[in-house]
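Lab notebook page, bench 4
Experiment: in silico fold of construct C2
Operator: M.H.
Input chain length: 82 residues
Purpose: comparison with the prior construct
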Amino acid sequence: MIDEIIILERLKNQDIKAFKELCFEFLQPLEDYAYSLVNDARGARDLSVDVMGRLWATNGFANASLPLLEFLKEEIRKASKL
């Protein structure tokens, strides 16, 4: 279990170790959620990785809210509709 407040502050400062910790903690739950939206395992994996990569590349975590998993699920949901 990660301390989300600390991780979020580190993410806002583009701390790559924090991003790796976030991926380790949340990538599988995000894939599971994405699968419930797209009903395709490869599509769910791609969607999850794409959203996480976009958030990192654009410093999208600067606007993130807690709890992080709910923020990430919302980002997955929005991306699945594109």
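Observations: The chain has one domain: 4-80. The radius of gyration is 12 Å.
Next step: discuss at group meeting.
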